[in-house]
Amino acid sequence: MRNRPQIVILGAGYAGLCTAHRLQKKVKPGNAMITLVDRRSYHVNNISLHEVALGNALAQDVSYDLVPVVREPHARVLQAEVISIDIENQVVHTSAEDLAYDYLVIALGFVTETFGIKGMDEHAFHIENFIQSEAISRHIEDRFREYAFTDSLQRDPLDLSILVGGSGFTGVELLGEMVDRIPLLCKKYGISQSLVSLRCVSADKKFLPMFTDKQAQYIMDYLSDGGVEFYMDAMINEATPNSFKFKDKNGEHEFKANTLIWTGGVSGSPIMKETFGDAVRRGRLVVNQDLTVPGHENIFVIGDVAAFISKGSDRPEGTTAQIATQMGTATADNIARTLAHRPRHDFVFKNSGTVCSLGARHGLASVYGFTITGFLSMRLKKFVETLTDYKISGLYNAIKNTRLFKLINF
Ligand SMILES: Cc1cc2nc3c(=O)[nH]c(=O)nc-3n(C[C@H](O)[C@H](O)[C@H](O)COP(=O)(O)OP(=O)(O)OC[C@H]3O[C@@H](n4cnc5c(N)ncnc54)[C@H](O)[C@@H]3O)c2cc1C
After folding, report:
1. If you measure from the C-alpha of residue 170 to the centroid of ligand 1, how many angstroms do you get, rounded to a whole number?
2. Of 245, 264, 283, which residue sits at a domain end?
3. Residues facing 13 on adjacent strands
């Protein structure tokens, strides 16, 4: 079957799955073979991982199988670890088999970036996949249970203390879930909420720069009212088994807690650096306007591993599921055009806004210049999730994966 052009897509996240799903509709079975490679047999809606981390959603609520989405005869899923990419010989080495390609789409997503902070990898939880998110949920509940069922003289107050490093989008959405969940845990274990400490330490000077000052202040006020204490412009330099050590304008500090969570940064897959060398910064490669690699017009780099600079701008767009999905659509269309000997189109990012969830019933949406808060913003977030599911997996799967049901089930 090697006579058909081979299209290999690495990563079944928003970008890769969207490319595969759209391409299998655009290309006739005789015209190409599509192989979608991922270490997992399922897609994960990363944008909901913070819900899993506080037990407000289950792993099965935020994931679904790839096989029903990517189907024979001209598309298949290969569950394997991508080990390396040999650009010269146009081969991808995986743990299962070597894949020769005519067109390659690299969509390997993000990994947690701890910037070399001592002890952060070992001692803090990260939100990278739902196994880690579930571990956070279990750990927090275990600490509350331990506190409640220990003799009052031997209780460890740090069991009720949670430290979050980083105040970016992930950290803020996680804190929003905590504001929802902590009162329920206190009620369940008969613990006074006044004993719980929820602190966020962040190097950021400006809180949530993707929002206006007023919107960002609204979010910070909501979380502060829910018991979160913020320490901004504070540089964490070490994580110990039960503390963050950090420095701010007032000097050196150490905050203690039995739950440490790091949300302070992500970078693109390490395979990017191994493949493209020094051109890669924090796992991201600056791509051409059609999302290809400079000098390699058959290799597309999309999603969190791509640094795409819109025309007229001097900085790469941020990494979000929104842009990853749009890149997937554009890449599928461009590969289909190339196979049909038609010219490619440049990618244009259409930013329709940002929705930040603050637990299950609250949030802030900034869309097309409008600000929506409260319950309506959360409905909007669920709608966006359903729409994204539709784009990357089709109507049937979007319905089957219950996002639509969640939308109307309030
Ligand atoms: C808690 C949280 C909340 C977020 N909220 C939002 C939000 O509200 N809105 C928004 O737009 N964005 C949000 N984001 C960001 C968004 O999730 C990412 O930008 C998006 O997931 C990037 O999509 P992607 O397809 O590039 O990569 P990913 O979704 O990370 O997919 C990469 C895929 O590659 C696979 N893979 C990686 N390495 C290998 C390998 N070596 N071998 C085989 N397979 C491999 C992985 O298993 C994965 O399936 C959030 C992120 C987090 C963590």
Report:
1. 12
2. 264
3. none
